[in-house]
Request: fold
Amino acid sequence: MARISLSRRLRRTPFSDGVEAAGVKGYTVYNRMLLPTVFESVEADYRHLKSHVQVWDVSCERQVELRGPDAARLMQMLTPRDLRRMLPGQCFYVPIVDETGGMLNDPVAVKLSEDRWWISIADSDLLLWVKGIANGYRLDVLVDEPDVSPLAIQGPKADDLLARVFGDRVRDIRFFKFDKFEFEGRELAIARSGYSKQGGFEIYVEGSDIGMPLWNALFAAGEDLQVRAGCPNLIERIEGGLLSYGNDMTDDNTPHECGLGKFCNTHTAIGCIGRDALLRVAKEGPVQQIRPIAIDGDALPPCDRPWPIVAGGKRIGQITSVAWSPDFNTNVSIGMVKLSHWEPGTRIEVETPDGMRGATVRDKFWI
Amino acid sequence: MARISLSRRLRRTPFSDGVEAAGVKGYTVYNRMLLPTVFESVEADYRHLKSHVQVWDVSCERQVELRGPDAARLMQMLTPRDLRRMLPGQCFYVPIVDETGGMLNDPVAVKLSEDRWWISIADSDLLLWVKGIANGYRLDVLVDEPDVSPLAIQGPKADDLLARVFGDRVRDIRFFKFDKFEFEGRELAIARSGYSKQGGFEIYVEGSDIGMPLWNALFAAGEDLQVRAGCPNLIERIEGGLLSYGNDMTDDNTPHECGLGKFCNTHTAIGCIGRDALLRVAKEGPVQQIRPIAIDGDALPPCDRPWPIVAGGKRIGQITSVAWSPDFNTNVSIGMVKLSHWEPGTRIEVETPDGMRGATVRDKFWI
Reply:
């Protein structure tokens, strides 16, 4: 497999020294930043994630900060999710759409106060869209990327580990809420969230200088919990149905196609730039949608390009993420399937690099 | 060195099959697309590039297409370079700036006609900025990413190779001009341009389906010219002073800091969004600027993060790109240096991973 050529353009993170010391074996690039993909092996990392606790360098979830009197108005312009009842201290998963209803990102919005928000972004330069909109509409708001690098603590022992470093109050944080905690005299937002289904937290580490001190404190506190460096795990995230922007969806897709219709309050999200386009989709429904799909046979190679899904000799969709699941003893996958074939139980065929494979559309993801 | 984990999100190109067959050994990610970095070795690739001809998959130079009555107005809003005298058939290197004068990209603008432009971008999602501006100002223009993938032909034998495939008329294309040529019934724009100082062309391959046929035609025609697959070469581009957005400059920098003041006609570029901010910089001049710097001693490792430049115990700049040059027998590098130390001949010190090294600010790049 090809190696990655490092340069300043592929940004290091405040935790890169720790990641390297932990023996990272593979990287991807996410928001022009290094994101680890494997430590021991994808399967060993998966097993450990489901049993213990891991510390993930997800600095690549960069923040877009909105500050000023028009911050809330701008935030609502970006998304069809109705934000009027969102309170400070809450995190909302928000599809971000352009004027055609195409998805530009699927971040988590963090409401710090009425006039200060963070958007914790997936892989696209959302900053540029937000700055362009703020400029074009002459909004009274500052938009920039602050020095904030998320560090995720994921796995069944995440509460125990974090309580040792920040105190038992972390146990009281509810899902998709955050609270403030002190570390070395700095106030950090900690949310109960993260890109796995194993439970855990994301620490919004403000100030690169405290990155490695915090990393080291977590590892020192968690030795007997078998804490390890980890990263978003391909197998676990497909089992759990966690979508990946750029993989499972692009700006070609509406939120409804991605199964994110429940996050679209298109009628009441007044001001959303893509509202007109989405009203029609909301009414008529999408003609293709993301589905969990089990692919027959033995383990398949990584999905580095869309694999066509066919039925009756016609292309009726594509697979965009796939992994062999040891726990479910099948190839778990995510695909976009046309309406005619998206019913659970439908048998389809997938053109894989290992030849045609039978597959079954499922009702739900695996965990 | 860590390997790269492939996924659909790191987009393949119309030429990826050819690149793989040619034995690519390393990749970087550029505009969320795979960009080869090395075939035989960076030094062997460099030697070959300077002697023969190479075919480069630079599909990652994605195009932002502007189409419609407001296309020219929008293009001028993006850049401080005065575009009023630009003619269809011309390519202009254009710094793109935000409202603070910070560089968002340093692309080549290709004027196809008065109401149709391509912006051949460096590594940032410029599409999102342009779409945001077009939307906010309610301009009458369509903005999207067309199916166009540049293929560069670089090296001293580039004219000979291209003439065999497209006819002798390619020899008449002047620097930073383009003309239209036919391949398999398709009209393709070919410009005399490219990211090396060895001469050559960039073919704007419109339609992914003709990617591999064109790739194969070039290799078949150039066997006796010793044509090879290549890629932008780190050594050659530093010797030649070709800047890299994300490496040598970011949105923190003004065009003037990057030595691109000559491309800023700030007084006459009426409508440019960053004009107000840049008028002041144009008048007073920058306080730091990019310089070629020769670093003493033997070959240094890759510059994967900024290396501080110090003088008299103070930080006075940073190195952002470095390579050992066999032809000039020194470490060639690019750095940002404060006004107090940017005079040619100034001796400075660089904090490298191999310890402190003496270095000299140069008057000019090497080639």
